[in-house]
Amino acid sequence: MKYYLAPMMGYSDCYLRCLADNIYEENITTFSEMIVDKAIIHNEIKTLEKHFLKTNRSAIQIAGSDPKEIKESIQKLNQIEYIKHLNFNLGCPSSRVQENKLGLALTKEPSLVEKCLESVVEYKNEITVKCRLGLGLEEDIDYIFSYLSLFSNLGIKTIFIHCRNGVLNLDTKKNRTIPTINYELFLRCKDEFPDLNLIPNGEINTKETFEFFVKHGVTNFMIGRQFAKDIFFPEKIGLYEIKNKKMAILKSINDFRSHKFLNINLIKKSIYTLLNDIPNSKNIRKEITIMEDINSLQNYFESNELWN
Ligand SMILES: Cc1cc2nc3c(=O)[nH]c(=O)nc-3n(C[C@H](O)[C@H](O)[C@H](O)COP(=O)(O)O)c2cc1C
Questions:
Q1: Where are the domains of the chain?
Q2: What integer pLDDT is reported at residue 295 of this predicted model?
Q3: CB of 130 closer than 6 angstroms to any ligand 1 atom
């Protein structure tokens, strides 16, 4: 089984990703928050130093809608040695993103998507796409089938599918609840495109859901909110055994030190995802909340045995 930590603005920052990478090692690939191509063009050094640690193993997720600009950002990313995987966002419905015709909004124009992807495929390392199952509330098999054909024709073989439609002019939160989850349509896509590596995303957070997919031959999963809530959840539902939690956390704290824009509050936010359901977690959280620097965090995890 392989996990993918979904790109999530405000959550999948370099600290949470680093923790996940050190905990699950080669069994996870993590994705940065969405980064607009313009930010890379205008100041790639600062943008990348903000979003990535020197020890990075994550993919970068980018969004864009101007093929020339995408190309320019890709040329810059081709020079960056510590990023080896690029994911293109075709699913984000946020209004700010919509205004700029990015993400889901871009998919209203298939010919423009094609031109954008022609620029994306100039990236020299691994390329993947993340998309929705459809646009608007109605099931629309043609939408997803034609996009999968397009990706395939351009040589993009790994696609993360958020298994619900996206709706424009609906806020992002409602876009994660109102369009219904449609795993059946995902499975039809899998049958129709056996040569593509299709990876499901959306509400995959219970043992039953994992078992449903495994029964259908799916063993790779992209997970967002459940990891952001409880990074150890696969162990709690009996899917995975995490060998040395303390070592993974101490290694992460050490990796954090390389971050040019070290932010202790974001570090603590990522650390809280480790504390779900452990005995005394309220008090531990209180102790961590008042810490003001990374050395205090390191001492705390070195001298406490929070996990067996
Ligand atoms: C707070 C938040 C921010 C998100 N930001 C992004 C993003 O930057 N790029 C993206 O492709 N998806 C984004 N998503 C969508 C997630 O990647 C994922 O598709 C969605 O949460 C469904 O998966 P889940 O049910 O496992 O959380 C975001 C989701 C949340 C909750």
A1: 2-236
A2: 97
A3: yes
Q: How far is the CA of 224 from the centre of ligand 1 (A)?
A: 6
Which residue blocks in the chain are alpha helix, DSSP H?
14-24, 37-51, 67-77, 95-99, 103-106, 110-120, 141-153, 183-192, 207-215, 225-229, 233-236, 245-256, 264-272, 281-289, 294-303
**Is the shortest distance between the CB of 11 and ligand 1 below 6 Å?**
yes
Q: What pLDDT, on a 0 to 100 scale, did the predictor assign at position 44?
A: 95
Cα 131 to middle of ligand 1, angstroms: 11
Pick 2-236's CATH classification: 3.90.580.10, 3.40.50.300, 3.20.20.70, 3.30.9.10.
Answer: 3.20.20.70
pLDDT digits (tens, 9 = 90+) for 41-85: 999 999 999 999 999 999 999 999 999 999 999 999 999 999 999
Q: What is the pLDDT of residues 93-104, one digit of tens each?
A: 987 777 789 999
